[in-house]
Amino acid sequence: SGDKTGTVEVTYPDGSKAEVKVTVHVTEPTKQPTQADENTPEPKEISVRKGENPKAEDGIGNKDKLPSGTTYSWKDGTPDTSTSGDKTGTVEVTYPDGSKAEVEVTIHIKNSEEMIQSEGKTTTYVALSQNSYSGNLSANKHNKDLSSKSESRKLPQTGNTEIGLRAVGLALLGLVAMAFIGKRKKE
Fold first, then answer.
1. Is residue 114 classed exposed, middle or buried when 0-12, 13-18 and 19+ CB atoms within 10 A define those classes?
2. Which candidate, 36, 71, 130, 173, has a CA 20 to 30 Å from the CA of 112?
3. Cα(178)–Cα(187) distance, rounded to whole angstroms?
4. pLDDT tens-place string over residues 65-113
């Protein structure tokens, strides 16, 4: 970059020639913005069961606003989820033009006896048992520093399924018998 001087030979239509000194101003080429320059992927917390592999794309909260064809991968391999607790991982976002961005996300790893359901920014953890449940309901604007409320209730007894199956079986047997008897009477 900078100014460069040189001589240009000019040829006129009548064939005569002249030399003219010129100064050329050289500039750096303007850089076209990449898709990584034009987009900002937002981190989203991920909750998984112990031993379950988190998906890198689940760690990006605004995938729907990123260009079609964008891919997501774990920068340093899939995070280890063999122990419970909170861990961080880096999601590498690769845009269709080849440019990249990195996003650090938090991964909440829960014990395998917990069932995890996520809806929006509210996460519900339900501990499984035969006749009762207890849950932690938590939410806030950014899904961080979650506070919790616990409750426990007895599930209603809905009857013995074995007796219900017997009744259905007897009803079917009765229908088959009536159809058979009706067919014999016609003959």
1. middle
2. 71
3. 15
4. 999 999 999 999 999 999 999 999 999 999 999 999 999 999 999 986 6
